[in-house]
Amino acid sequence: MTLRPTRRDLMKLAAAMPALTLPALARADLGGPHMENPTHFSFTLGEAKLTVISDGSLQLPTSGLGVNADPAEVQAFLTRHFLSPETSYSHTNHLLIELGEAKVLVDVGSGNRFLDTAGRLMDNLDSAGIDAGGITHVVITHAHPDHIWGVRDDFDEAILPDAAYFVGEEERAFWLQDGLVNQVSAEMQQFVVGAVNSLGVEGADWTSLGDGDEVAPGIRVLASPGHTPGHLSVVVESGGEQLIALGDALTHAWTNFAHPEWYNGTDIDGAQTVTTRKRLLDMAAADRMAVLGYHFPFPGVGHVMRDGDAYRFVPALWRWD
């Protein structure tokens, strides 16, 4: 896999260099910049051009991490890794795949209906010089707010009316089942309503997918249930190289690797989430497949390395030339 930044990326990173000479901090997070940071990152995988585009960020309580573990152990783990023990700050990394005639966008972000810190995808596509109207396929990994609520524009019509839309068959059936909104907790009811509205958006003709189905030549999906019942991950294969866009099958670049047995409060089926996660980690490590984590530190691309009975995320080394 060859990671190649665009000229615009290099100029912005060069401008940011003085800010990166800060002394060591107590935590791994740095203060906000006084200039614009890069919001997209392009590289190649075989013949495929891949671009990671940010939709913004999410800040959620760490009480939702590792809910089946001792909270003190989780907080100690975060502290050892220079992460806040109170607030989980995560990025939102969307993948645009350009391979052959296909331009495939994985997930459509939050739009303006979720958190104020997210919903930047369409603007950031424009900043990257990408014509959103040229996107041919949209694949939804799952129907949580930060992945699908951006499908509707301000007129409640499909944000990309000329694209073909794809979602997991089991995912669609789960969210659209009769009476679901009355079967979930009060906190989850808005998720159900949002998913129903998004999957029913005017102007989107949905195609259902199952495990192994091809979206376009060289681009297929993997069933990765647990976080949601019909969650899908997306595999790109070109020139003998492969990358898995994990969606939310893995959401944390530290806890999910060192403690794959921990699951989160947002995982609908915790046990199945763990089984799926271990399978994906085994696959990526054994086959040396690159991975993209939707909530990993931007741009979220790297590899999986075995570490005894656990794993480590190894960020990809990208090239200046």
SSE topology sketch:
Elements: H1 7-16, E1 40-45, E2 48-61, H2 71-80, E3 87-99, E4 102-106, H3 121-127, E5 137-140, H4 145-148, E6 164-168, H5 169-175, H6 186-199, E7 206-209, E8 214-216, E9 219-223, E10 232-238, E11 241-245, H7 255-258, H8 270-287, E12 290-292, E13 301-307, E14 310-315
Parallel strand pairs: 4-5, 5-6, 6-7, 11-12
Antiparallel strand pairs: 1-2, 2-3, 3-4, 8-9, 9-10, 10-11, 12-13, 13-14
Please describe what this structure looks like:
This protein is an alpha/beta fold. The protein has helices at 7-16, 71-80, 121-127, 145-148, 169-175, 186-199, 255-258, 270-287, and strands at 40-45, 48-61, 87-99, 102-106, 137-140, 164-168, 206-209, 214-216, 219-223, 232-238, 241-245, 290-292, 301-307, 310-315. It has one domain: Metallo-beta-lactamase, Chain A. The chain has a seven-stranded mixed sheet. The protein has a seven-stranded mixed sheet with strand order 8-9-10-11-12-13-14. The model is unreliable at 4-25 (pLDDT under 50).
